[in-house]
Amino acid sequence: MGAELVILGVGNLLMSDDGIGIHAAQQLALDPPGGACVVDAGTDYLSALTFLEGARRVLVLDAVRGGAAPGTLHRLGPDEIALRPAGGGAHFTSVLEARRLLPPGAPWPDITVLGVEPAVVDYGLALSAPVAAALPRLVAAARRIICEWTEQPSPRESLQVAS
């Protein structure tokens, strides 16, 4: 049984902006908000299941294609996640598919996805300029969401998120 609140950073650090979720998780791990367990899952979704089993709520950090300008933040709740097409550029769909590997009737957490619209998803270690500029906003938004979930006072950073 893991933590009740989990922040799950997913993506591929070798594919430029696709690694934004990992970069954010690494920053949040230095000072985890609200007692949340921060997990750098990368592309290893099966290992992430261990952390999801006992969780009540999970915040997935990822690159999310939504047709907005690169660097735009997207917040997706369970209804929006269910409507996303497979292969839409976000790894959280693989995390959701992995649910089938849990025992029948196993509890499943409420999942929210917080992502950044990528500019470049191609071989490379560096984030593009608009996505690198969005990284502090992504980290601040993740902290703010955990504060919402734990009913703690929110950090002062403003949260501007597209839906």
Key terms for this structure?
5 strands; about 160 residues; alpha/beta
Give a written overview of the molecule:
This protein is an alpha/beta fold. Helix content is 32%, strand content 18%. The protein is built from five helices and five strands. The chain has helices spanning 20-29, 45-52, 78-83, 92-97, 129-150; strands spanning 5-10, 37-42, 57-63, 73-76, 110-116. A five-stranded mixed beta sheet has the order 2-1-3-5-4, sandwiched between helices. Helix 1 (20-29) crosses helix 5. It is globular.
**What's the arrangement of strands in the largest beta sheet?**
2-1-3-5-4
Low-confidence stretches: 86-90
Number of helical runs? Answer: 5
Rg over alpha carbons: 15 Å
Can you count the beta strands? 5
Per-chain topology:
Layout: E1 5-10, H1 20-29, E2 37-42, H2 45-52, E3 57-63, E4 73-76, H3 78-83, H4 92-97, E5 110-116, H5 129-150
Parallel strand pairs: 1-2, 1-3, 3-5
Antiparallel strand pairs: 4-5
In short:
With 163 residues, the chain is an alpha/beta fold. Helix content is 32%, strand content 18%.
